[in-house]
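User: Structure please.
Assistant: Input sequence and predicted structure:
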Amino acid sequence: MRERKNIFQNADKIMIIIYILLVLMGWLNIYAAVYDDTHSSIFDLSTNYGKQALWIATSALLIFLVMMTEARFFSSFSYVIYVGIVLLLVVVLIVGHEVAGSKSWIEIGSFRIQPAELAKFATNLALAAYLGRTHVNIQKLSTKVVTAIILGIPPLLILAQNDTGSAIVYTTFILVLFREGLNGNVLVAGVAAAFLFIMSLLVSQWIVIGSTAVVLAFVAWRWQRGRRPWFALIGVFLISVAFVLCVDYAFHKVLEPHQKERINVLLGKETDLKGAGYNVHQSLIAIGSGGILGKGYLNGTQTKYNYVPEQSTDFIFCTVGEEWGFVGSTVVLGLFLALLIRVIMQAERQRTAFARIYGYGVASILFFHLAINVGMAIGLLPVVGIPLPFFSYGGSSLWSFTILLFIFIKLDSHRNEVV
């Protein structure tokens, strides 16, 4: 293979430019989120924005390391990387440091790392390596079982750390599986399960069970040519009943009180503007007060007077809405959309299944984080602690998203070679 004079040769410049813009805009908004008149230098390492500058610098180093690595390394060592990160998730359960109720951090001196963030790209690599093998068919039961194991181990370990937000990210890999040929009935089952889940929280479980029985009986009655698959319908009914009962049990016996409060506030069953609903209420005020053009950079009153908790992490988007307004928010969302479209376009033109599957995994993870984080900020989804990619404060998060994206950029730059 001919050596390249530049490690960025053939690298997708559009994705790199969008990445740089998002990281820099995120840094400026982290500064704005904690700004007051006593803050002078944006490089003050005692503050979140100063530390984020350090994370950005180290992320640049990671980019060079990824781009200098042979492209085939990522397919050849994907399982090794996956197992290594899984072992880190186990180590966290033993010696991890607890932050905000989640035992998710490993401390080395003053340095802290969250393996749950790094597990995302590692799982994506392992999934791409497995599904990308020539003899693997997603329609086979054995393939589905192995896939479920690969995708199931990290979130189970993360749930054991009491980090629900990071664990639910792995549901987004279902989009990758559909691209690779998973039966559409799974999507129908998923939508039905989501509907049953919500209805189980809104009304009595017995009303939901009774309504399900009526619907299935109607389906049987409407079946063409008198065929009534009673066995299948009874099976669906029993599974639905078990699911509804599990939802009720999990809600009342498994979830923490603050998690139940957040769900009830979201569903309109409770109004708690001073408790569980406070963050979202203040976020909506901040975003709404920004109007069309915003209040101006560093002029956000909700931001400046610290009304919105976690404003440099989970609720960073409300800073954008308040200070940059509708126009600025649209620009930020437009950049994310452009990045997602670009990743999917590049994934489709890959010559290897490994690179294609990995690319779709990148798009799925970024989309999930974007949708959930913005949904939290505008009150459409419960608060589950999902960072906004490249924007939210945090070294592990920025490292993870940077590695995730630039591995794909590296694979794409070698798409004409066997990797």
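The chain is about 65% helix and 5% strand.
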